[in-house]
Amino acid sequence: MPSYRTRHPKLRALSNAALVLVCLIATQATAPITAQNLPSLGDGSSRIVSPQMERRIGEAFLRQLHANLPISEDAITQYYVEQHMQNLAQYAQMREPLQSIIVVDNPEINAFAAPGGIIGINLGLLLYAQNIHEYSSVVAHEFAHISQRHFARGIEEQQAASVPMLASMIAALLVGAAGGSEAGMAALSAAQAAGQSNQLRFSRERESEADRVGLNTMQRANLDPQAMSRMFERMQNAYRFTTRPPEFLLTHPLSETRISDARNQAREFFSDDPENSARKWPDQLEYQLVRMRVRQHFSKNPQADVFNYREKLAQAPGDSALQYALALSLSKTNQHDQALKLMRNLEGKISSNIFFQASLAEMMIAAEQFSEAQILLTQQLTLYPDNFPLAMMHTKALLADKQYNAAETVLQTQSKLRPTDTHIWFLLAETAGLASNITGVHLARAEYFYLHGAMHRAIQHLEYAQRLVRESNPLLETKLAQRIQDLRTSIRMQNS
Fold first, then answer.
1. Residues 52, 176: one domain?
2. How far, in Å, CA of 341 to CA of 360, rounded?
3. Is the CB of residue 336 less than 8 Å from the CB of residue 363?
4. Among 39, 233, 297, 408, which residue's beta carbon has the most beta carbons within 10 A?
5. Which residues of 57-83 are buried (b: 16+ CB within 10 A; e: fewer)?
6. Whose CA is closest to 93, among 208, 206, 213?
């Protein structure tokens, strides 16, 4: 007659898992304390997940993200997002600088923070947040997840809960073994439900803490702290009846209590000065310009956009954001003279000279004014050496003018300044091919595949490059051999 464990494979699997967990806990309880595993007195979570480990986890996460999500290739939007986050981070009391800022080419609302100082947004967040204050409230919330080390603390809480959770599971297994099958499964389900409820409670606590810390960041940065509750409330209302809410609401669940808490904390900031609560918070023009870029990016009917923006400008002729939006749409529909005239009229109105010059150069390239664009960008790069959006527009102009060697040189510099930017490595590989630099093609492709977590393909291209330089450049061959060995070591560690 088969045993109870044989007849219930799910229970058998849980029993095995429980035995393994017992062994792990016993091992941890009896492990000798050495210099290598002494806990940090200032941060309890460091006993389990150190900042160094968080960075390694973050790097692995980044490779998976690159492999599975479309990353925005708009250098001007990327530059704006990076500059805004770097500025806001000064007020967020971050323990370490941000390592990577990702902009995902997706129109849905989402924002995320990952271990190791990685933060990202979907382009959809720029569409949905109506002003710089609402947008900043979401970014400040994500900063709080990083500064408070919520990932490491979550791991610590799970480990702390493992012993009582294990006790409940073992009790359920013993009831089942005694013959009370239904009672055993009921107890087991209750134990699992308790564990899930505990994890949810910790998650809600971390979300509330991130709201509080984020609001303090908003106040220090002189941004409207009331924008957070407004943003949450509008999201909740907009997606109240949808079958599947956006990813942001799945990973950051909203509740009436959470919205109320955010609103009440914002009011407390003005308790000493009630008149300040009625203050009008100015928006930022560059934020609205970036929103217009994102709208144009996802637009499926530029001709209709031209008509709509002309209608809106007739009602508000001095609106710089609408002028910029119309210029983008005109450029998209090959009405280049009108687009450039509108764009030049915005000089002096856009506070960021880099934003203005990069946008102007982009429209000049679209109008096939390659020489003029190169002259403009060369002048600007003298003022702002190696600036990312200006350099990428310069590359675009050089490629359009078939100056492949010069474009490759610009991209090689950018690849050193932005070694985790997958778009730069992809473009560098394509440009090296046009410049007949076969070794450069393989080196760039190797970095591109490495950043996507495709280690074997990265090694393959490094080996191709190694064979090409074997006789002409022994020093480079030695460096490539070491890189290949390092990647093979990484693969073995992942598989062990």
1. yes
2. 10
3. yes
4. 408
5. bbbebbbebbeeeebbbbbbbbbbbbb
6. 213
Cα first-last separation, the chain: 39
Report if residue 340 sits inside a domain.
Answer: no
Whole-model pTM: value is 0.81
Cα(172)–Cα(182) distance, integer angstroms: 10
Q: Does residue 114 sit within a domain?
A: yes
- What range defines the domain where residue 13 resides? 1-28+47-290
- 201-251 per-position pLDDT tens digit: 446 778 888 889 999 999 999 999 999 999 998 888 888 877 778 878 877
Assess contact for 324 and 292: CB atoms under 8 A. yes
When mean pLDDT is compared over 237-251, 266-280, 394-408, 469-483, the highest value belongs to 394-408
- Strand order in 100-104's β-sheet? 100-104, 118-122, 111-114
306 found inside a domain:
no
Mean pLDDT of 113-133: 93
The residue behind tokens 């609103």 is 263
| Band (64; pLDDT cuts 50, 70, 90) | confident
Rg (CA), the chain: 27
Here the tokens at position 440 are 């450069």
Return the structure tokens found at 415. Answer: 């690849």
387 touches 364 (CB < 8 A): no
Convert the pLDDT of each residue in 299-334 to its tens digit. 999 999 999 999 999 999 999 999 999 999 999 999
Which of 229, 262, 290 is the C-terminal boundary of a domain? Answer: 290
Q: Indicate whether 296 belongs to any domain.
A: no
List helix spans (H) across 178-226: 181-220
Domain containing residue 442: CATH number: 1.25.40
Task: Indicate the residue among 243, 272, 290 that finishes a domain.
Answer: 290
DSSP single-letter state for residue 167 = H
Q: Are residues 114 and 252 in the same domain?
A: yes
Number of domains in the chain: 2
Contacts of 148 (CB under 8 A, 6+ apart): 206, 209, 210, 213
Range list of H helices, 69-180:
75-89, 123-128, 132-147, 150-177
- The candidate with the shortest Cα–Cα distance to 123, out of 160, 78, 93, is 78
- Average predicted confidence (pLDDT) for the chain: 83
